[in-house]
Batch of 2 targets.
Target 1
Amino acid sequence: MNRIGVVAGREFLSTVKRKSYLIVTFGMPFFAAIYFGAVGLLPALFMAQSGAIKKDIGLVDLAGVVRLDQAESVQDSGAAALKEAQELAGRLAPRASGAAKAFLEETTARVNFRPFPSREKALDALRSGDIERFYLVPADYVKLGGVENYQPADAPLNIGRARAREALESLLGRSLLAGKVPDGMIERIEQPIVQAASESFVLREDGSIGPFDRTSRIAKLAIPGVFGILLLMSLMTSAGYLLQGVSEEKENRVIEVILSSVRPDQLLFGKLLGLGAAGLLQLAVWLSVATMATSLLAAAALALLDFKLFAGCLVFFVLGYLMIGSLMTGTGALGSNARETQQFAAIWSLMTVLPPALTWIVIFDQPNGWIARGLGWFPLTSPITMMLRLGTGQVALWDFLVAVILLAGGVYLAIRVSGALFRLGLLMYGKRPTLREILRQVRHAW
Amino acid sequence: MSVMTLSFSHLRKSYATTVAVDDVTFDVRSGEVFGLLGPNGAGKTTLIRMLMSILLPDTGEILIDGKPIGPADSDRIGYLPEERGLYRKEKVQDVLIYFGMLKGLDRKTARGRAHAWLEKVGLPDVASRRIDELSKGNQQKVQIAGTLLHEPAILVMDEPLSGLDPLNTVLIKDLLRERSQAGSIVILSTHQMPMVETMCDRVAMMNRGRLVLYGNLEEIRRQHGEAAVLVDVDGDLAGFPMVDRVEKQGGLSRVVLKPGSAPRELMDLLVQRRIAVEHFEVARTPVEEIFVRTVRAAESRGEA
């Protein structure tokens, strides 16, 4: 056990001190900030600009149905929507709210209709650039529902156009209803369910009724999600460092000295622990930088609310990392060059992710069905599947324990077998071992 | 000091197409420097890897004082592989401390030993330099220090002197002698015959996986060597009854005697015939010659 610690300590320190590690760890957030700044911000600016409606919209009503006094109330509900959107923006990203507010104000600004008595008058105004566009409501509108839209040939395809149309629809709807139904009813017809005024309740197992907790619902999805992504990322990063380190040791022949001192499975396990720690440190740096920049970690903070789920996922994260990591390395060491090695390693992550990814709907729907349970108990697919199953909150303790025990057994087997393959791979310089030799090594592993 | 015995007993190891080690049996005892000889591909490295538990024998076993060797014994073994390797970009002391800790030393002891052994190999001031800043010879000495750091009971060195200058050769030879006298088993695997002649008490010679010679070096010489003398004389000795043949060697003649004849008989005859003698030296058969002859003989037997 002690030797594992020695190997882990060395691998951690030597990885963390690597130039490439430092560049990736500390350079990545800068790169990401610049990248997302450019990719994310510029389109938002363009959209804000294209969304702006700067001039009046003309309206020629040949059907005689439009009541422009109703345009006021159209504006009212728009203002309410604006306020709600601004609040949401403020909650999500306090730092960004200034820019977001400006954006929202611009895009939800009042659409002003200017009436014209005839098509010709409206066309004159359009020609002279007084108005942006105009709509003509024909005499047979009530019967057919068609309207005519006039705009300059070079008018951009922007969201301003969609908003002008929405405003017209709303205005027409209200004009048709006005006077025929009570005033208060019009708003309900337009928006039958108001999200902000609605509430959900849950019937608990003990018979009591409680409020539906949206946060915990989010947590149930976010925690497995965060851990699943973390598992994949740490496998990718540390498997990369591990294979790189091993091929270096193989190349400079240090491996012979090391193998004369520790068992291959101890070496493998120590390397996994040390590199896993280095990988997690890297993620922690990234996440903390990301937090400062965008306060995205609010999601992770939410996740902490459900501690039981968090702890359950953590168990499967650690065991899953050891299981897949050791298989990746054991088989990776058999590769005679870097490309083969990467391919061997990639197979394992596919085998881990693909089955639950293809059946996630079934897993959520029937967390105790045979597919969910089978994938949850089979060590290779267990880590991701169990995270998803735990998220549903419907997995019994005994079921959880069976999965943990099976996965732990899988980890033990994987490390012993991979250790044997690792030894075999390390001593073969440039040639691939025969299947017989592989089987023999595996048989001798215990 | 009690004697420790390392026994290789009927070891056999085959790869897909070749038998690398074929029924090899011999003993090595503490206090001696043991030479493991043989041409390339003889199976020496495979044998050493089995001792290190890096490879597993197909059949047979390796015993220390009668007990089968296991991975737990690796702390008692120090191994200098033939193909040298160190972490090039790391500091000398970091690498040495790591090697020491892998052999079970704690960090403090490993650090102390690292400095002590660097001093012993004549590199007292390189501890905080990077490996790749050192010359090749000095890297080799660092690696030798790394092998000796945990003061192993069994020391296995594959070509320890290759690439060292004469001064450093003497230094390392003295270190190995010292370890041997301190009660360690010292096994040298080498092609360098001069080293075998000056260092080894006993040898095992392998060829194509088989043990072809084994025992005390002097005895092997006596059994397999030819009686020969180096002389500088006036006259031709080819017609002498005990002379088998005469070869030129430097400015001297190497007179190989017929089997059963002793150098003394030649000396007596020279005196008797009043031949002037400038130089008369009993020539020990070089191990290299015995080595080559034995390997050739074994191969011709194998082919027959």
Target 2
Amino acid sequence: MSATDRLGTSEGAQEMASRSATGADELDREGGVLRMPEGPVLDPGDLIVEVVEDETMIINMGPQHPSTHGVLRLMIELDGETVLRTKPVIGYLHTGMEKTGEELTYLQGCTNVTRMDYLAPLFNECVFSMAVEQLLEIEVPPRATWTRMLLCELNRVSSHLVFMATNGMDVGAVSMMIYGFREREMILAFFEKCSGLRLNHDYIRPGGVAADLPDGWRDDVLAICDYIPGRLDQYDTLLTGQPIFHERTQGVGVITPEQALALSATGPILRSTGLAWDLRRDLPYQYYEQLEFDVIVGTYGDTFDRYAVRLNEMRESIRIIRQIVDLMPPGNYRVQDKKVTPPPRRRINESMEALIHHFKLFTEGFRVPEGEVYVSIESPRGELGCYLVSDGSARPYRMHIRDPSFANLQSLPTMMRGGFIADAVAVISSVDPVMGGVDR
Amino acid sequence: MTADAPVDGDAPAPEPQPELLHGALVSRWRGQVIAHPTRDAYVQVMKGLRDSGFDLCSDLCGVDYLTHPGRPLPGGVEPGRFEVVVNVVSTTQRRRVRVRVQVPGDDARVGSLFAVYPGSEAMEREAFDLLGIRFEGHPDLTRILMPEDWEGHPLRKDYPVGRVPVQFKAAAATR
């Protein structure tokens, strides 16, 4: 099947319409979103099946469905096997982490945010730390920033590997599940060496990182860089060139760049539509300006493109990691600011003041000047932002995390509209929502 | 250094023309651009921002300033109990603007951005759910994270947080 006729597109105007042309009216007219309270469905009177007009039916998928990646529930209105409208229902994993964050000091805050998007914990820590540092107006040493970038890029690979695994399994390639997790384990082993934990590291902290990179980190990272690309080529053989995989994914769950922008989708979803928007390149933070990498874009905005964008992003990440390994400078791994950084361990043994200082930092915390700041970085799923308000005390007054999965879920009804119910699983999987991040 | 540093009243310095963005006061802090529209002009300002290239609404959240009313705001902006904070990005001009709207506590309602940025829908539902700010014109303003029948809005500062009192029992004297 050639590329054009799988979507039946004419070679029309290649330029995007203006953003204001894609308003709520158009999206609502297109349908897609089921506007119906969740409440009445829970009534035993009209459980599950509700005939709206004539032949349509509303079914609930999840929250305990194995392919909804956690506890996502979808209310789907069906006409036969065709999906008409969808409503994502979330909140089953809501634990009030934003409220908890107001009760924790800035040093404790990282242990909280790292549990949000649990497949990309280092990004959560990184964005929170960057927001705190911006409020404090401190500059972290170059080695700390490069270390953060190194670990974040590794985390991006490990997160996309989980996507490869689950996406493969959702469309029927069960062996992918094992392969993806096998490769990811190698990266997690390196994280364990650095931080002591496989997940929820609390490694990146305001002021730098918790510890210097372990001895022999260079060999470990280069071993990962040598090993993963070969595996990615195997995925190409297993999935990318596979006719069955094509049938399941190409032309399924299409979204246009205008719709994706209007629905606040970012990350691979937005890029798969052909719009090259990557915060690492477009609003550079840390030292990404000094690195050479490509922003991967798709063309059709379908499930296959979202898969291909992520696959190639891993290759770009490996390319970035190799550059970081070469550029890693010596120096401090955390800022030498006594207000933020606890004294070194051996000073505590010999100095009473150092002990008091250490105790004060970890019980009372450090005070952060009054103000509010929004910082965002490019996580594997899109724009990850942290809005932090400080009232001058040692705890954030308000901590809000803009999680990409939460915003990306809004484009799901548009993607699913008009498709088959059997494709729903492939589409959900291609959005790659992490419910820990969605519900926070 | 805040953008709203008080101007010395005695010095006959030329009145600096306040910077405006689509009719909204603009302040800058730590290199970030912040617009402060009034509640009535809010949706209109957002529409102006969208039409001038800010095509992506990246974030919307609410803040309850109940216990911290004296935060710095540029002159002329009346502080309200709540604040709705919107972050918009321009993918063509590669810049970011933050919009802060003051919402009074006794009448916590503000226009919905749904018609301007459809992607703000879930975020407005979240702000409604957690802070009780009503967005007028929102197509489906229901709870999104908390259970349907939950009472109260947890991110409000006067929301009682359940606590288990710690009891320090007097230890039996050993000697």
